[in-house]
């Protein structure tokens, strides 16, 4: 029997040890607020709560889960598929991103 595991040995970023609140917006309209538990990614928390989150590969390679960080601080595995310009413009990957503070994300198409 084979098992796929969506983790990365490159997970060297900072993490928080307390739950963090995440608000998800789509074009400025709130679609949900959830609590991200320590060790959980933004995508895992959103999906578990039924919030519509874009994604595909879940390992930071495809960019389908790219969203704009409106507020707060997120750490994410490196390397990943974001360009330096996308990072500078405030985009993060929810599949490998973990909140370091209360965050607001906009899932509208980038």
TrEMBL record:
Q: Does the keyword Electron transport apply?
A: yes
Pfam families documented for this protein: Fer2 (PF00111)
What residue spans carry the Polar residues bias annotation? 9-20
Query: Its family?
Result: Belongs to the 2Fe2S plant-type ferredoxin family.
Q: Carries keyword Cytoplasm?
A: no
Superkingdom of this protein's organism: Bacteria
Where does the record place the region Disordered?
1-28
| Alphabetically ordered keywords of this record | 2Fe-2S, Electron transport, Iron, Iron-sulfur, Metal-binding, Transport
Q: Where is the 2Fe-2S ferredoxin-type domain?
A: 20-110
The entry's protein name is: 2Fe-2S iron-sulfur cluster-binding protein
Cofactor requirement: [2Fe-2S] cluster
């Amino acid at each position: 029997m084979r098992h796929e595991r969506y983790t990365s040995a490159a997970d060297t970023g900072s993490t928080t040890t307390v739950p963090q609140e995440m608000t998800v917006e789509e074009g400025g309209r709130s679609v949900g607020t959830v609590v991200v538990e320590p060790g959980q990614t933004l995508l895992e928390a959103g999906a578990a709560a039924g919030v519509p989150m874009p994604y595909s590969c879940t390992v930071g390679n495809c960019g389908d889960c790219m969203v704009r960080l409106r507020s707060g601080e997120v750490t994410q595995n490196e390397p990943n598929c974001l360009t330096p310009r996308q990072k500078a413009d405030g985009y993060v990957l929810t599949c490998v991103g973990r909140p370091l503070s209360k965050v607001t994300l906009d899932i509208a198409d980038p």
